[in-house]
């Protein structure tokens, strides 16, 4: 019997898919040394050799400019270089359509929607695809996994079931294009987050290039996944929006944010790498201010992990968006390292 034949016969074999727990529930049982979080050189790029976005034409255009103008120009070139193209969009759409077919073979009335970076067009070439399925139950992860195999969407060894997390997931690598895909069930918060993201993107022209730049920055350092304690896309967006809305020069209309993305990126690194006291204050977009963590009652994790950032969720003020980003210490170090180089 082939693997596909096994998958079709639920009574014959129970697939022993790899199952993982949510690190949020296990991190406290593991002793973590600060030295384990301190590799701030991860993902450093040689600007002299490995800058395909910075062509000879760009170098000539930047030759007589001030350093800040050259930084703005290179950031614009880099963002253009990593932005999605037509092939990326069509390929990802094809993957979503295939997943929808597999899901509807189980639940014909199910609804399949994308959210996250693909929905907001903020995805990188390495970004995963976030899909939410609205169906009668959220406890049939194995059934969905078997359907993915039957339809040739994923191989058995490329599927992981995250059953004990706050949000259960089916994680797999697409067999055709090798995209990483996350499927969640009956959770609409991701869709609401995407709507907020689109509103902010319309309001701030510098938001998209800054987010793409930061997402790539975090991705090459493996600091972009909440599942492994990193800084997720939603939290990164809230940090950038908070930074832009409270930037004094932007508030007074003294600079154009779209023309100063490079400088804003540098100032972002300085704020979150060197200036902000993570232990004492958190970020609020609802009130457009910094709140006192002690007054807000958000110091419980900070006692043991003072390097954790606290961000109030605009959708749910009781939710701290970065409460699971236990690797924030390394994120902060990477910001400091990048700022010092620039």
Automatic annotation (TrEMBL):
> Where do the PAP-associated domain residues begin and end?
260-319
**Organism encoding this protein:** Rozella allomycis (strain CSF55)
Coiled coil stretches, renumbered = none
Q: Which residues form the Poly(A) RNA polymerase mitochondrial-like central palm domain?
A: 73-198
Q: Which cofactor does it need?
A: Mn(2+)
Q: What keywords sit in the KW lines?
A: Magnesium, Metal-binding, Transferase
GO CC aspect terms? nucleolus; TRAMP complex
Q: Where are the transmembrane segments?
A: none
Would you tell me the protein name for this molecule? polynucleotide adenylyltransferase
E.C. numbers: 2.7.7.19
């Amino acid at each position: 019997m082939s693997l596909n034949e096994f998958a079709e016969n639920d009574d014959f074999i129970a697939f022993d898919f790899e199952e993982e727990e949510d690190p949020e529930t296990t991190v406290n049982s593991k002793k973590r040394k600060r030295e384990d979080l301190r590799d701030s050189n991860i993902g450093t790029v040689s600007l002299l050799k490995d800058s395909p976005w910075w062509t000879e034409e760009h170098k000539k255009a930047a030759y007589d400019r001030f350093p800040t103008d050259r930084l703005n120009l290179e950031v614009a070139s880099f963002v253009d270089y990593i932005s999605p193209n037509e092939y990326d969009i069509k390929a990802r759409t094809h993957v979503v359509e295939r997943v929808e077919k597999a899901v509807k073979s189980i639940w014909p009335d199910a609804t399949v929607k994308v959210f996250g970076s693909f929905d907001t067009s903020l995805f990188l070439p390495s970004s995963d695809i976030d899909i939410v399925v609205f169906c009668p139950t959220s406890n049939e992860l194995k059934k969905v996994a078997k359907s993915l195999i039957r339809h040739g969407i994923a191989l058995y060894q490329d599927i992981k079931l995250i059953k004990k997390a706050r949000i259960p997931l089916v994680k797999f690598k697409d067999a055709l294009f090798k995209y990483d895909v996350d499927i969640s069930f009956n959770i609409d918060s991701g869709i609401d987050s995407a709507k907020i993201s689109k509103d902010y993107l319309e309001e701030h022209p510098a938001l998209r290039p800054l987010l793409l730049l930061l997402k790539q920055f975090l991705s090459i350092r493996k600091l972009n996944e909440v599942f492994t304690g990193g800084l997720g896309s939603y939290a990164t967006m809230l940090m950038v929006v908070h930074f832009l809305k409270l930037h004094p020069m932007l508030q007074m209309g003294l600079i154009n944010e779209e023309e100063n993305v490079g400088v804003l990126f540098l100032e972002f690194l300085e704020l979150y790498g060197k200036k902000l006291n993570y232990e004492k204050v958190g970020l609020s977009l609802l009130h457009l201010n910094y709140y006192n963590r002690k007054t807000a009652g958000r110091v419980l994790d900070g006692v043991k992990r003072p390097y954790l950032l606290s961000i109030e969720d605009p959708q749910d003020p009781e939710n701290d968006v970065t409460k699971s980003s236990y690797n924030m210490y390394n994120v902060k170090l990477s910001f400091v390292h990048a700022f010092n180089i620039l």
